[in-house]
Amino acid sequence: MSQLDMFGAAPVDEGNLVGLKVKLDRPVDRERPCCRNVCIISAGKRPHAGELHCADCGQHRGWLSKPTAQWIEHVVTRFGAPTTPIVVRKSEEARPAENSR
């Protein structure tokens, strides 16, 4: 039986994601790119679901969050392993609508 993480989200099977390539398209990746911004997912350290390393030079590029890992896992489960890297972007919160008077 798998155990829920401390925030109550469904568990992620990190083993299914290890070795997959993702293309980073976060603001920091546009400001300070590393090679082609393509990373390989490796095993992470809690509380992260995975670690991102540059596919070209091996430099640490960040951590894979559990919600992002769950989304990638869902895509891979539904459509199979991708032939090109999945693009990972930073989600932006919707700005509140201004009241017009």
Report what the structure shows.
The protein has helices at 27-31, 66-79; strands spanning 21-24, 38-43, 50-54, 60-64, 86-88. The protein is globular and about 30 Å long. The protein contains two helices and five strands. It has 101 residues and is of the alpha+beta class. The longest helix is centred in the C-terminal third of the chain and has 14 residues, at 66-79. A five-stranded mixed beta sheet has the order 4-3-2-1-5. 19% of the residues lie in helices and 23% in strands. Residues 1-12 have low confidence and may be disordered. The chain has one domain (14-88).
Topology summary:
Blueprint: E1 21-24, H1 27-31, E2 38-43, E3 50-54, E4 60-64, H2 66-79, E5 86-88
Parallel strand pairs: 1-5
Antiparallel strand pairs: 1-2, 2-3, 3-4
Features:
101 residues, alpha+beta, 2 helices, 19% helix, disordered N terminus
How many H/I helices?
Answer: 2
- Using the CA coordinates, give the radius of gyration: 16 Å
* Strand residues, percent: 15-25%
Percent helix: 10-25%
Distance between the termini: 56 Å
Low-confidence runs:
1-12
Q: Quaternary status of these chains? A: single chain
| SSE string | EHEEEHE
Q: Give the domain tally.
A: 1
Placed side by side, the strands forming the largest sheet appear as 4-3-2-1-5
- Largest sheet report: 5 strands, mixed
Backbone shape: globular
The secondary-structure class comes to: alpha+beta
Mean pLDDT score, rounded?
80
